[in-house]
Amino acid sequence: MSLSCVSGMSRLGACVGSPRVATNRAIAVRVVISRKERVTAPKKSCRRGVTLRATATAGSPVATSTDTRVSSDFADLWRWLERNGVDTSKATPKLMDDGDGGRQWGLAATKDLGSGEAVLQVPETLWMTKATAIASPVGALLEEQPAWVLVASQLLYEKSLGAESKFAEYVRCLPTTLTAPLFWTAEELSLIQGSQLFQNAAGYDMYVRSTYQTLKDTVFDANEKIFPDSNFSEAQFLWAFGTLRARCLPPVDVGDEIALVPGLDLVNHSGLVNAVWTRNGGGLGSVFGGKGAGNSMLFRADSKTVSGTECFVNYGPAKVDSQFLLDFGFCDSFCQRPGYVLGPIEIPDTDVNQFDKKDILDVAGFKQAPSFTLRAFEGARLRVSQIKSLPVLPHAGDCSDRWPVTVFHTSSNTRDILVPEGRIASAVCPPVITHRLHITKH
Predict the structure, then answer these.
(1) CA max distance for the chain
(2) Cβ atoms within 10 A of the Cβ of 293, count?
(3) pTM to 2 decimals?
(4) Which single residue of 33, 114, 317, 326 has CA 20 to 30 Å from 4?
């Protein structure tokens, strides 16, 4: 399942996002560039019956206060990439800002780069994916689990192998401290209590902890050789989940596509660039058997970049501030995006009109549990207006179900929409719903 919508959850100058991790446990929200401008934050707060338990404690392996990663770790990672056919000549890891709330490690150009020039390209053979997890020792015992559980479990398994792991160099470069609200202290969380961000963080917390307990009771404890408690504790499982949320970017951040891409996930965020991760199907490299053969992930320089300066990508051009903070643990003070995520609007299994409604959403081009982002200083997006103004589909015997039926605004002024025929729709409240609706564009 997607990691982005669970239990109320819905992931250069002046504008630099903090890396997805931090080295100081006490500073949970890092606001870029102005390093002193930050929100600190907690735990054991409760709203609407949902409790978010504090994760960070003095003895927690997740809450270590010191970043133990050193330049030699990243040098080893770069050599590992090179041995596996990656061209690392255009960028290198560099400690960008180790100050309080700073963005820590990132990638710096090692030569002048042109606008649109490919900077780093990592083949799929080096990713950690659902497929690699299934092929690993954890796969046979977890193959029915969601992809994120498989990848998170493989990450913990590779970590338990130490130097013997194929991914040893990569795992050593992962931070032990994460700064998303899932890892805040109770005092820190109290600062966001009552917000949508708090509810979403509580959803993460409840979902991940319950998933862990189920796995522990049914799989981990019965297979301790593969899942040693020292590496598969609740704290470590939360760390693995947080690592996926912080380091997996589109198009490999949700569902079965979720993947860790070593090296590429070192690139820091900037809201002032348009560069994003791009999946490459192989192209000419695959035809001629070159280094580009097969699937890979790459990013390109957003503009001309001088040797020695930092490279950036945009972690989520459509994300609002609370989504950045939820997954990455920072807000962008120079490219603020205040907003609210409405949804997901789900159809419960107990709804007598469930199948009609799902058919209607599909015909209208909506996901079966659509979400909508409402942004400050902007009018409602067209899709919000569409679903808001749909006709109603009644319950049997009355017209009290105010769920909208269907609408489709296109470039033309009007459009005929075929409403799927259903037992309820065709039999009840004929004045409210007809089989064929003629909708005029507002």
Answers:
(1) 73
(2) 17
(3) 0.72
(4) 33
The set of long-range contacts for 434-442, using a CB threshold of 8 Å and a minimum separation of 24, is 437/391, 437/405, 437/406, 438/414, 439/407, 439/408, 439/409, 439/414, 439/415, 440/413, 440/414, 441/409, 441/410, 441/412, 441/413, 441/414, 441/415, 442/385, 442/389, 442/409
Rg, Å, the chain Cα set: 24
Place of tokens 């003095």: 58
CA distance 103 to 81: 23
Region of 263 (left: φ > 0; alpha: ψ -120 to 50; beta: rest) is: left
pLDDT per position as a tens digit, 15-41: 333 333 333 322 233 333 222 223 333
DSSP 275: -
CA angle 367, 368, 373 (to 5 degrees): 55
Average pLDDT over residues 273-302: 73
4-11 mean pLDDT: 36
Residue 338 has a pLDDT of 82
More confident residue, 101 or 375: 375
Q: Which amino acid is at 122?
A: V
Scored b (16 or more CB within 10 A) or e, 16-31 reads bbbbbbbbbbebbbbb
